Automatic annotation (TrEMBL):
<feature type="transmembrane region" description="Helical">
    <location>
        <begin position="233"/>
        <end position="261"/>
    </location>
</feature>
<feature type="transmembrane region" description="Helical">
    <location>
        <begin position="169"/>
        <end position="186"/>
    </location>
</feature>
<feature type="transmembrane region" description="Helical">
    <location>
        <begin position="416"/>
        <end position="437"/>
    </location>
</feature>
<dbReference type="GO" id="GO:0005886">
    <property type="term" value="C:plasma membrane"/>
</dbReference>
<feature type="transmembrane region" description="Helical">
    <location>
        <begin position="338"/>
        <end position="359"/>
    </location>
</feature>
<keyword id="KW-0812">Transmembrane</keyword>
<protein>
    <submittedName>
        <fullName>Putative hydroxymethylpyrimidine transporter CytX</fullName>
    </submittedName>
</protein>
<comment type="similarity">
    <text>Belongs to the purine-cytosine permease (2.A.39) family.</text>
</comment>
<feature type="transmembrane region" description="Helical">
    <location>
        <begin position="34"/>
        <end position="56"/>
    </location>
</feature>
<feature type="transmembrane region" description="Helical">
    <location>
        <begin position="97"/>
        <end position="121"/>
    </location>
</feature>
<feature type="transmembrane region" description="Helical">
    <location>
        <begin position="141"/>
        <end position="157"/>
    </location>
</feature>
<feature type="transmembrane region" description="Helical">
    <location>
        <begin position="371"/>
        <end position="390"/>
    </location>
</feature>
<dbReference type="GO" id="GO:0015209">
    <property type="term" value="F:cytosine transmembrane transporter activity"/>
</dbReference>
<keyword id="KW-0472">Membrane</keyword>
<keyword id="KW-1133">Transmembrane helix</keyword>
<feature type="transmembrane region" description="Helical">
    <location>
        <begin position="314"/>
        <end position="332"/>
    </location>
</feature>
<feature type="transmembrane region" description="Helical">
    <location>
        <begin position="62"/>
        <end position="85"/>
    </location>
</feature>
Length: 451
């Protein structure tokens, strides 16, 4: 049954509650600028180390890391594009779309997980903004965190206005800054040396790391694509806009790391040496609030799947306060590992959505109390298990448990096996099989009733 109680008229801004009208005002440039800005991240400059030195696998050569970055980003950004399609079709945010996949009550499971990961990433973004800001122009860390928290929260109150601002002003400044830093870094002697130790044997583990960075946006893509004028525009803008800039960001990060002997903590140092490096880094630091904006806004929208009548603006204010306080008092290092585990959960989730859609052709019941579909949850868990058995990652306890399970099964994954692709395909095939079984059962029952 295809149903949605969400209106699709076109007011100026997002309604404060889920039952309000849904603006359809974003074209390709609006969405492309948004996704392109998300692809450029202060975290990405040092985060490329996860590709160069993937957990549980041998380090890559720089050349292998570049190829893994390109392959992983193309795959990951295509997944983000796919996850943007349901929102553009239905006008529903991401976690509401999952009502059609899992049922109303069972959709609360990924909603809660998404709220947890987004609060964590929002906190992490404030910490990174503070670190980069103090390096660029100094000042107390707490002031940067509080300032970034205030700006982030204010931006979430008018989200469509924020996206228009990115297209008109911010994207141009970011493009100039990144191009300048890329030119500076790649004209340094050490940056031209793509040799060094490492191998290609951990290529797919590095590729999975690049995929993981992109797919962290899967559970929020429909929060923005729901405002797209066209479905094709939503997919293309997310895939192309995000893909190009993540590749550029990672490659620039590799160049910077080559100048500091792979020290991730010093990745900004070569940028600050450039004649206009402080200005470029400051622009990127201020622009980083679009990352924290996306995390806070989507946290509020995800929470609305649990409490649909809650005012999004009040939720954003509360969440903004929470991440600001956490940024002041929490050590994020250990939590980042936990967030990476949560992020890996959403690759098989997308696989379930694609597999189910191939059978049911996108027919979704988006009502709050849509019937539960536990078999889709089973397909999701199977996909998750496949991912973790291939690539348990490096989280204490969690990774140890999956490594022990792998050893108990006598399973040693070959180096060419990608955890992301395998879990995506497995979850999709299992979901398609379950959906087909449910459809045949429904038809038999209908025939029996008519007969």
């Amino acid at each position: 049954m295809a149903s949605s109680s969400l209106s699709t008229s076109a007011p100026d801004e997002v309604a404060p509650t889920l039952d309000g009208p849904v603006p359809r005002s974003l074209g390709f440039l609006d969405q492309g600028a948004f996704w392109a800005n998300l692809g450029v991240s202060l975290l990405g400059f040092a985060g490329v180390l996860a590709v160069l030195q993937p957990a549980g696998a041998p380090p890559l050569t720089v050349a292998a890391a570049v190829v893994a970055t390109v392959v992983g980003t193309v795959i990951g950004s295509a997944m983000v594009g796919l996850s943007a399609i349901p929102g553009a079709r239905t006008g529903a945010p991401a976690m509401v779309v999952l009502r059609g996949l899992f049922g109303g009550v069972l959709s609360w499971i990924p909603s809660v997980l998404n709220v947890v990961q987004l609060i964590g990433w929002g906190t992490f973004e404030l910490v990174v903004i503070a670190q980069a800001g103090t390096l660029a122009i100094g000042g107390p860390t707490w002031a940067w965190i509080v300032g970034a928290g205030v700006v982030t929260t204010l931006l979430t109150l008018r989200p469509l206005g924020m996206l228009r601002l990115l297209r008109r002003v911010v994207t141009i400044l970011v493009a100039i800054s990144v191009a300048y830093l890329a030119w500076w870094l790649f004209t340094r002697p050490a940056a031209a040396d793509l040799g060094g130790a490492g191998s290609w044997s951990g290529f797919w583990a590095g590729t999975d790391a690049a995929i993981a960075v992109a797919v962290s946006w899967i559970p929020v893509a429909s929060d923005y694509s729901r405002h797209s004028k066209r479905v094709s525009t939503a997919f293309t803008a997310a895939t192309v806009g995000y893909g190009i800039t993540q590749i550029l960001c990672f490659v620039v990060g590799l160049a910077a790391l080559s100048l500091v002997a792979g020290d991730g903590d010093a990745v900004f140092a070569p940028m600050l040496v450039a004649p206009l490096g402080v200005v470029a880094l400051l622009i990127l630091t201020l622009r980083e609030t679009d990352q924290s904006f996306a995390n806070v806004y989507s946290t509020a929208v995800s929470a609305q799947n649990l409490v649909p009548r809650a005012d999004r603006r009040l939720l954003c204010l509360a969440i903004g306060v929470i991440i600001t306080v956490l940024g002041l008092v929490v050590t994020i290092d250990d939590y980042a590992v936990f967030l990476a585990v949560i992020g890996s959960i959403f690759v098989p989730l997308l696989g379930v959505g694609v597999g189910e859609a191939l059978v049911n052709k996108g027919r979704l019941d988006l009502s709050r109390w849509a019937p539960s579909r536990p078999l889709m949850v089973v397909a999701w868990v199977i996909g998750l298990a496949v991912y973790q058995l291939i690539n348990p990652g490096g989280a204490p306890v969690w990774s140890d448990a999956w490594t022990a399970a792998r050893e108990a099964l006598g399973f040693t994954p070959p180096s060419w096996l990608s955890a992301s692709l395998t879990s995506f395909l497995t979850a999709g095939l299992v979901a398609a099989a379950f959906a087909g079984l449910a459809e045949r059962t429904r038809r038999r029952e209908k025939i029996a009733t008519v007969g």
